[in-house]
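Progress against Task 2.4 (sequence-to-structure conversion) is shown through the following example record, which the project officer requested during the mid-term review.
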Amino acid sequence: MRSSRWVPIAGWFVATATSIVLSWVALLPVLNAARADVGALPDIDQVPAAKIDVQQPPISTTAPARPAPPSTSPTPDRTPKVTRKPSKKPTTEPATTAPAATTPAPTVENGWTVTTGSDGVKTYVRSYTCAGGQAVIKMTSRGVVSLVTATPADGYAVEKTQSEPDDMAVYFNETGHSFIIRAIWWNDAPFVEVNEIGS
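Structure tokens generated for the chain above:
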């Protein structure tokens, strides 16, 4: 008879311990982002803007097919002038141009817009929207996560924290309520989760 009195207490203890462990696992990204060794969350005005690589088209090094028409007005010229004897054959050959380097067209993988650079590095870009605002996130196949833009909704403030190059969190905060967009490079692919904390 005595041992049956402890069964409800033991059940309560197991249920409480389980809920504590599950809460801890759910809050782990937030706790890791706000570690004392990382420091406080930076002010959004101090967060550097994301670097966007703009590739210029290659410059053609082939000579023009036709020579420039001679100028009628005298201009100082430092290059020696060469006169050629007219011949019966055409002096110009058909212009051959090197094939233009084309970048592959963007593709979509699991909702991410993917482009591949000339160096073979894939760039993934995607927009995430929640009630707290909108964030555009960029990741590369080299495991670098960056924030392109973050726009908070009315009444929210935005903050960004990044503990590692492949792990970033964007916070949309209002008093007692937050939305967290956590972006990581995991298993050679982008991974993002959106969480809401508070009410």
